[in-house]
Predict the 3D structure of the following.
Amino acid sequence: NAGVTQTPKFQVLKTGQSMTLQCAQDMNHEYMSWYRQDPGMGLRLIHYSVGAGITDQGEVPNGYNVSRSTTEDFPLRLLSAAPSQTSVYFCASSLSGVGTDTQYFGPGTRLTVL
Amino acid sequence: GDSVTQMEGPVTLSEEAFLTINCTYTATGYPSLFWYVQYPGEGLQLLLKATKADDKGSNKGFEATYRKETTSFHLEKGSVQVSDSAVYFCALSARTNAGKSTFGDGTTLTVKP
């Protein structure tokens, strides 16, 4: 099992550029989510999905889009990058999304927007 | 809304010292409580969890007890090692919102030999 994988590990963008952060899991988990981690602020939920074809907004969704066409993949799209989106992005998955489930995290993507 | 408050860091200890990292929460209902650990350059991984009041989670010498009366889930370890140096996050997941987790700000622990 590879667990949760994310690509790329590092990315530098210019303001206004778009890109997609990839996330995949091989554990057949129904629930997947994207968080951003900023210094001293913990993790904040961007978007989440409770299954293929179903997505919803988290705490900080503006400027990001997601889709979930398969159980395995949950890409995060930045439509027009802004310096405020400089952060470390983590993808996570859990078996069913119920509150007792453990979340499994990917290694993260460090994004810098100039 | 739900919130998690962790003691402010960073925390620096000598090897074999006793560790406590405080965590208190605000939530409706009966959330599950978690401690995740993040080693340098890596993602978060579960350290321990407790899913109901008075449960004690434990792993790798770390312990935390779910205290509903004080809304707390403090992390403790009797004797820390240099390899315990990491960032520790307290988190909660409410039972009724599809498992969306709320995280504390994290506490950086450095253990010196």
User: Anything to note?
Assistant: The interface with chain A takes residues 4, 31-32, 34, 36, 41-46, 49, 51, 89, 93-101, 103-106 of chain B (CB under 8 Å). The CA atoms of residues 52 and 75 of chain B lie 16 Å apart. The radius of gyration of chain B is 14 Å.
